[in-house]
Design brief:
Largest sheet: 5 strands, parallel
Keywords: DNA replication, DNA-directed DNA polymerase, Nucleotidyltransferase, Transferase
Protein name: DNA polymerase III subunit delta'
GO molecular function, one term: 3'-5' exonuclease activity
Number of domains: 2
CATH superfamily of the largest domain: P-loop containing nucleotide triphosphate hydrolases
CATH architecture of the largest domain: 3-Layer(aba) Sandwich
Strand order of the largest sheet: 2-3-4-1-5
Strand content: 5-15%
Number of helices: 15
Distance between the termini: 50 Å
CATH topology of the largest domain: Rossmann fold
Helix content: 40-55%
Organism: Paenibacillus agilis
Catalytic activity: DNA(n) + a 2'-deoxyribonucleoside 5'-triphosphate = DNA(n+1) + diphosphate
């Protein structure tokens, strides 16, 4: 993997590649953005570019340094992640010891910190001191969902590199080219923030099963409550799909949005385009306002689910509420 082959994230590429070309690499970078946007893969690619023996502003993916980083055994590249719920001060101290040893060739060391916002206060303060007074030429890559959750003093000493959700159409094209089923891909790219997450979702058997069950429920829930309740009980809550009840509401949200798009004559925006015949029959069973209301109901049900209310109870109440759109 190289910058050239990474999909999207053009602003992030511009920031780090400019530093590589100008030989003005910052001592610390804050990779901030939602899960699924490829921050970790980008960080690894950046590390390879810093050590690559052939290219200046990218990685060749074939030299010894690139291959060592890919296999996780480059002596001057270190990865640190939370132990349990947090990154602890002992981990930072251990990292500092590792970085104090002599480097192999370039004189530079790199460390990648996953979920950097999970540092304890003591760990963050220890890291801050290390950022201010590194024992050797070091590049820190701090990965976080929310850069603003970091200590202001760490933010001020780091180069912010923003990561944004990738465009669904861009991900759709790539994943279809890779051979994944179009219907599955079209759904997955509207549930994730990046290509890797979309690919992983398409590879999960449970995701295809959950989509099929949602379609069955979607066809019955507006008119046949008893049938819908039975399907939910037997095909979701008595199976392993119960673990993915949260995503079931995400799928329903997309399904209801398709109803609105059909009413608005925006068929080219349909996510479940393979179900257009069914959508054409169901879309007009509710008014636009009622479809908006059931979308809100799905969001509210999802909030209750995340507040640890019994999943089956939440879903059954949601289905009952669907009957009149009220």
């Amino acid at each position: 993997m190289s910058f050239e082959t990474i999909l999207g994230q053009e602003r992030a590429k511009k920031i780090v590649q400019h530093g590589l070309r100008a030989d003005k690499v910052s001592h610390a970078y804050l990779f901030s953005g939602p899960i699924g946007t490829g921050r970790k893969l980008f960080a690894q690619t950046f590390a390879k570019a810093l050590f690559c023996e052939r290219l200046q502003d990218d990685c060749c993916d074939s030299c010894l340094s690139c291959r060592k980083i890919d296999h996780g055994n480059h002596p001057d590249v270190h990865v640190i992640a939370p132990e349990g719920q947090s990154i602890k001060i002992d981990q930072i101290r251990g990292l500092q010891r590792e970085l104090s040893y002599r480097t192999q060739a370039t004189g530079r060391k790199v460390y990648i910190m996953e979920q950097a916002d999970k540092m304890t206060v003591q760990a963050a303060n220890s890291l801050l001191k290390f950022l201010e007074e590194p024992t050797s030429p070091t590049v820190a890559i701090l990965i976080t969902e929310n850069g603003q959750a970091m200590l202001p003093t760490i933010i001020s000493r780091s180069q912010l590199v923003p990561f944004t959700p990738q465009a669904p159409q861009m991900m759709l094209q790539r994943l279809v080219e890779e051979g994944y089923p179009v219907a599955l891909v079209r759904t997955s790219v509207h549930l994730v923030n990046g290509l890797d997450a979309g690919r992983e979702l398409c590879q999960q058997n449970w995701f295809a099963e959950l989509r099929n069950v949602m379609l069955q429920l979607g066809k019955e829930c507006t008119s046949k409550l008893g049938t819908a309740l039975l399907i939910a009980q037997q095909k979701v809550f008595k199976t392993e799909l119960a673990e993915h009840a949260d995503m079931l509401f995400d799928l329903f949200h997309l399904w209801f949005r398709d109803m609105l798009n059909y009413q608005l004559n925006r068929q080219d925006h349909l996510i479940f385009s393979d179900q257009v015949d069914t959508i054409s029959k169901i879309a007009w069973t509710k008014s636009t306002q009622e479809w908006v209301h059931v979308m809100d109901s799905a969001a509210e049900a999802q909030k209750r689910l995340r507040a640890n209310v019994n999943p089956q109870l939440v879903f059954e109440q949601f289905l009952v509420g669907m009957q009149g759109g009220t």
